[in-house]
Amino acid sequence: RATTPLGLRAAANGRWQLPDEQTWRFAAAVSGNLDRLATTVTLSAPTQASFVGNALNLTGEPRIVGTLRATEFDGTPWFDAGVLPRTSGSVSVDVGADGFGLDGTLTAEVFGDGPVRVQGNGRWQDQTLELASFRAWLPRSSLTLTTTGTARFAGAAPELALSGEWTAMRWPLIGEAAVESTLGTYTLQGALPYHFDVDAHARAPLLDGAPEAQFTATGSLDNGLVVIDQIDGAALGGRLSGSGRVSWIGDQRWSARFQAQNIDLATLRPDLPGRISTVATVEGRGFELTSPWT
What we know:
By secondary structure, the protein is mainly β. It is built from no helices and 19 strands. The chain has a 19-stranded antiparallel sheet, with no helix packed on it. A hairpin with a 3-residue loop joins strand 4 and strand 5 (49-56). The protein is elongated, with a radius of gyration of 24 Å.
């Protein structure tokens, strides 16, 4: 319905089937005029999300300002269900012809009791999200992750060309940390499986003496699976290299083959002086200290 001066009021709901046969179910409503058009859009499938905001200055330099909300978003439909942690939250966005900005808060069980804060800016062009900067951090700690690059949404999975760094990374994010990394850099390239390169400093606080390592790693990241083609680093007074694969879904199977050269045993067991070199293969299920492995 139109009013004078030119106003709009409309509502619609339905479904939209894309060429990949994915069906999107939506509802939308607008009201106002071309200077300020209140807009609400809700998705019910394949994911639950909504936008509430305003479309501004539609006859001049248009902008969209509002809030995106998601409920238990796990990456569907771009990733298999269960690959990413179910995440809920809200993100304020300001989108114009020249770019966008975002600022929000996300929650998930893997984050613990506190939220993750996110901020970023960039632009959208030719099915490609260009990130000039993106930062995610845990306010209750020093953990920070930054990234820049592009994500192209033209196929079954986003095609990435990202790079960035982290500080005060740890895993798991809650409870007693099995691995801590004070600083690291990374790149993530391609479509699934994504190729990665990592250069980082890490320590294992659960082991005697909390041994530290400076290492590089290359490999690939697929739905629920990390394949490490090569890892090499200085640790325990010698060198460690190897390869492996880790799955964090299902029964969380993992396996690794590593070669140790000139390792100083006294860094782990002061009562065992001397150095060793060895080649070993281990595999197991789960990531707890009590999880089975051979």
